[in-house]
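ESCALATION

Customer reports they have been waiting on this structure for their group meeting. Please prioritize. Original submission:
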Amino acid sequence: MDLDQYFQKAELIPAIVVEDSNNEVLMLAYMNKESLQKTLETGYTWFYSRSRQELWNKGATSGYLQKVVSITSDCDDDTLLVRVNQTGVACHTGNYTCFFKEIYHAE
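Update from on-call: job pushed to the front of the queue and completed.
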């Protein structure tokens, strides 16, 4: 599979990670071509850390792995939707999802 089509606009693309069993958005991370290739090869999520400037395998140190169910791209091939089976929590804070800080809720 030629992955170049996903990196025409930038070296890093957003990857929205969703729990397959309940459709909950777990996190947003970034992938480069190498991390996407490693994800496809291993069946577990790999991302590129912008702050550390290196690849990282989600859950490699915590044990909270993300087994990939499917990966789809958006209509422009510049964002990925990664459906996973999450083991444990997704957020480094200990929360199940990284999206827990509510800033607005319409009544």
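Sent to customer with the following note: The longest helix spans residues 33-42.
Escalation resolved.
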